[in-house]
Amino acid sequence: MSFADIKLLLLDKFGADVIIGEETSGIQPALLIAPGAIAKVCLELRNNPATYFDFLSCLTGVDYSVEDGRFGVVYHLTSMPYQLQLVLKISKENDRSEDNLPSFPSVSSVYRTADWHEREAYDLVGIFFEGHPDLRRILLPDDWEGYPLRKDYKNAEFYKGIKID
Amino acid sequence: MRAKAFTHMLREPQHDTLCLLYRKQVTDALKRYNDKIAAASVEDMVLNMGPQHPSTHGVLRLELITDGEIVKEVIPHAGYLHRCFEKHAENLTYQQTIPFTDRMDYLASMNNSHAFVMGVERMMGIDKDIPQRVEYIRVLVCELNRIGSHLIAIGTYGIDIGAFTPFLWCFKDREHIMGMLEWASGSRLLYNYIWVGGLFYDLPVGFEERCREFVNYFRPKMVELNRLLTDNQIFISRTANVGVLPMDVAINYGCSGPVLRGSGLKWDLRRIDNYSAYPELDFEIPIGTGAMGRVGDCWDRYKVRVDEIEQSLRIIEQCLDRLQNELKRTPDFDPRAKLPRKTIPKAQDYYMRAEGAKGELGFYFIADGKSEIPFRVKARGPSFNNLSVLPEISKGVMIADLVAIVGSIDFVLGEVDR
What we know:
The structure holds two protein chains of two kinds. By secondary structure, chain A is α/β, with parallel strands linked by helices.
């Protein structure tokens, strides 16, 4: 099943409100999905016997530059029975304030891999995942301030009163 | 009464930063976790295993909620070795990042840099121009490194179970591999040998012959090791039917490499993606069969690694055949001939996956098309995903069995924490 077939299949099922576009410029084409529907789309892709994307290879939180003010999550799915790969992207604008993290639905109910990957994205990029069972920091300590992989992150000078060189 | 006091203490915000955290949406998860530990400290017993425990294979802290000898729940705490590889990669050029990839899975550095380099080459569109000799040398050193990594997995697993001798044997044999890779690259553990577009240097003169000697020396050693450990009744009793990981759970948790193959699925990216020189090489993909217990138990995962060493030796022999015959070294061969002057890929994003020693090793690049520095790099470490299945398969096991399960997953904390 080719990328175009998968796109058609999803368009049939969800319509153009959910499958809002595609990126075909690079060597790996990607489908752009409406942020709110990502869990639904993943569930369909996993359960549909024609696609069977049962393996979430990678989940990446991305901060698309400060000027843009956009945050996104990229999903790399693999279908083991059909040996296919698919890239899904969601993104959303955000004002970067401390109290208002960009928020996307969690896919950890579909792929348990997403559990730790989403914790990592929360930890390092500062993306909140709605419906995640246990969204704590995973690599940094619980009381760390800021999100290091954000483009406007300033290196911490002190941690618990200890100077960081 | 005691319970109440204790819960109160844990819930109390300890200083300003924690107060700040408590205001945010995510406080809930942290609070739930604190409450759980507080309650468990009263009802059951909370036991810290690590970060300095020898059988956590590095600095991993496992928080166990135990009822006597039974583990009710395992909560892994990673991050003690966190260096934020991804932040480093965003500040350095592609070529400069290669030494940092070496430090992820430091037991199989060659495999890491191979995956990273292939991703950059594909984005640059030069992956078809790489000379065959370079591809074969890359595969050769990767497979040597894979054997080294598996030897550590097997040796330390023996120690976890209580067998000391295999550890010494494995380290002795691994030393030969270290020596050869040091001869080729100049360092023992972190090589920086595979570069974008080529290699650091050609293999030293006489490497192929010595490598073949090693293969001939090492084959009988594996037979001995199997007699000592693999078929050892004590070892089998400790590992068979322990930590059974069903295939569907393994896939859902993103397990890959020997952990997934131990659960009985023939999934090896060297065959699926057919990258580098692998399509021309003949090897088999060992899977777990449940020979000593059930499919997907600790013994199966262990056995897959033992069998993979055998297959890696086959690959090495085939590489040596080609490298000594049709791809023989010539005086004018320059492994740096195809090195790009400037590594500036077109604006795009690309996910490269390759079979590392522990499983699917992925690098996701976002290139902006203007600079030599990537906009974003995400590393998908196989150990990170393989470790995430631990709480699932170690519910209700004995503490001693937990050690067996942790060892059989074979993770490297350098890669979990990155």
